[in-house]
Amino acid sequence: MTERPIRFVHRGALVEVAGLPVTTSVLNWLREQQRCTGTKEGCNEGDCGACTVMVGELVQDNLRWRTVNACIQFLPTLDGKALRTVEDLGPAHPAAQAMVACHGSQCGFCTPGFVVSLAACQQQHQASGTVPTRGDIADALSGNLCRCTGYRPILDAGEAMFKTAAPALDDAATAVLLRTLQADPSLHYRALQPATGAVESFTAPRTLDTLAEAVAAQPQATILAGSTDIGLWVNKQLRVLPALTYVGAVPALKQIDVQGDVLQIGAAASLEDAWAALVAHWPTLREMALRFASPPVRHTGTLGGNLANGSPIGDSPPVLLALDARLVLRHGSAERTLPLDGFYLDYMKNQRQPGELLVRIDVPLPAPGTQVRAYKLSKRRDCDISGLACGLAITLQGDTVQAVRIAFGGLAGTVKRARHAEAALLGKPWTEATLQAAQAALAQDYQPLTDLRGSAGYRMRSARALLQRFWLETRPQDPLPASATQVWSAA
Ligand SMILES: Cc1cc2nc3c(=O)[nH]c(=O)nc-3n(C[C@H](O)[C@H](O)[C@H](O)COP(=O)(O)OP(=O)(O)OC[C@H]3O[C@@H](n4cnc5c(N)ncnc54)[C@H](O)[C@@H]3O)c2cc1C
Ligand code: FES
Ligand code: FES
Q1: Helix 111-128 vs helix 151-160: angle between axes, to the nearest 10 degrees?
Q2: Fewer CB near the last or first residue (10 Å), C or N of the chain?
Q3: For the residues of 320-335, what is the DSSP string, one character each?
Q4: Same domain, 118 and 157
């Protein structure tokens, strides 16, 4: 594989970068190399949105812009793409103008990030011919924190900007440049890491076969997907990663299809696309999808990364366990399929072998009559990691529980099913008495720990309360409608 510089589009021109460390963040490149200091550094871990930029890609030959957190994106992941910052939107952009007119800024530190997120929201709705509600705008801004202005004027600005059409900016010219980059060979980039004096590498195969071969041949290299976890290893734990194998340049790994009665989600599909596909089949998962991180994190983070990292508080595993998902793994050319149930062995340990790549998540489509819910408890409504999350699926025949799958995260060292609670429900009438038996059985399934996200007592009481909510929403008589349980509809 031939070594070459990173090539992408910025400010209407092709940019080539060589010699910078592999894990240089897009944010540091912008601020330190380009002096584009409109993009700010707040938290440096994807939480505050001060560093929000847009990344443009050709998707079926159409240019698509999506927001990302520049602080946790490594520069080589921009190869073949386009970068747009607050400077490129300019002060005349309707989002910037509306922020001024509605007094949406005080100290101004967060403002560039808000303007970029608002501009992306406007662009997206303009393209689909929709007008967002105030709640939709709040969701679009869930990755942006403001510590001094307060959100009312910012949401006012979000509504006001729709009075003026979003400009196309330099989209046509950018698409032309991106097409020329498609002729580049796949990226193999190497550079010196000054902290260690060693050479680091970033390899981005373009086909599934070459990627699987690269992962098998170099099992010690770190598999990199959206870097919404790995970016923090570098920024916060100061870890050195001598070799990265990037999964994001393989189109087949981002594919989402229905084959027969199975929804197949490529492991490198973004969380945004993967959850959209899940919500299309199970609309009751919408609230969970919106509460998963923030748009910029969901645009880069992948479903495969969320399952492979093995976190006991990841939001996808409980839901996918309730849906009985299977994982397709590949070592070189050998493929195997494992149920997600049983994939996690212990805290941060799973059945993936060194040199093995997660390639696909297979989710059986809903059986008729199955009701599915997912709930998440966190200290903050927006962009917060779960204290507790669960996925629940129940099939009733008349009033009787014919099938049930319940999985919780945040109650044990791994996300796992509540087998005793399930057994207490199976074959029984779905009544309050059965619910109470299942609530009691949760104590046999989990012995939660106390940590900074919650005490053991809080976790168990909350798990029982969530089971009760599930019963209230799915009981045969008088089930609670969504309008009684969702924040914006209740407001
Ligand atoms: C601000 C913020 C908010 C967040 N909020 C949430 C939240 O609400 N809920 C939640 O669950 N998570 C949350 N996360 C965590 C994170 O976004 C997810 O875990 C994400 O899905 C990780 O995916 P990634 O593609 O970014 O993985 P990466 O960071 O690239 O990789 C994560 C791990 O998975 C491995 N990996 C990735 N792809 C593969 C593959 N195809 N095969 C084998 N191994 C692979 C990597 O080697 C690494 O060990 C948040 C993170 C941030 C920064
Ligand atoms: S600096 Fe806070 S999200 Fe990037
Ligand atoms: S205006 Fe000061 S943080 Fe938002």
Answers
A1: 40
A2: C
A3: HHHTT-EEEEEETTEE
A4: yes
Atom of ligand 1 nearest to the CA of 358: 42
Q: What's the domain range around 462?
A: 255-484
Location of structure tokens 């319940």: 406
For residue 114, give the ligand 3 atom closest to its CA.
4
The pLDDT tens digits of the residues spanning 235-271 come to 999 999 999 999 999 999 999 999 999 999 999 999 9
Please list the residues that pair with 187 across neighbouring strands: 204
Q: Is 196 exposed, middle or buried (0-12, 13-18, 19+ CB in 10 A)?
A: exposed
**CA-CA distance, 362 to 359, in Å (whole number)?**
10
What atom of ligand 2 comes closest to residue 296's alpha carbon?
Answer: 3
What CATH number is associated with residue 53?
Answer: 3.10.20.30
Boundary (domain end) residue, out of 219, 246, 273: 246
Q: Decide: residue 147, CB within 10 A, 0-12 exposed, 13-18 middle, 19+ buried.
A: exposed
- Binning pLDDT at 50, 70 and 90, where does residue 426 land? very high
Q: Based on the domain organization, do 242 and 217 belong to the same domain?
A: yes
pTM beyond cutoff 0.70 = yes
Our mutation pick for probing the ligand 1 site, out of 47, 67, 73, 223, counting the most ligand atoms within 8 A of Cβ, is 223
Q: Is 15 exposed, middle or buried (0-12, 13-18, 19+ CB in 10 A)?
A: middle
For residue 485 and ligand 3, the question of a CB distance below 6 A is answered with no
Here the CATH number for the domain that contains residue 146 is: 1.10.150.120
How far, CA to CA in Å, does 244 sit from each of 118, 153, 215, 349? 33, 43, 10, 20
Give the count of domains, the chain: 3
Pairwise CA distance, residues 411 & 333, whole Å: 37
CA nearest ligand 1 atom 28, residue: 227
| Contacts (Cβ under 8 Å, ≥6 apart) of 256 | 263, 264, 265, 266, 269, 273, 274, 277
| 3-state class (DSSP) for residue 203 | strand
Q: Which of 222, 246, 270 is the last residue of a domain?
A: 246
Spatial CA neighbour of 482 closest among 373, 347, 387: 373
Q: How many CA atoms lie within 13 A of 123 on its CB side?
A: 19
Strand 52-59 to strand 62-69: parallel, antiparallel, or no bridges (unpaired)? antiparallel
Looking at the fold, whether 111 and 26 belong to one and the same domain comes out as no
pLDDT digits (tens, 9 = 90+) for 335-394: 999 999 999 999 989 999 999 999 999 999 988 899 999 999 998 889 898 989 999 999
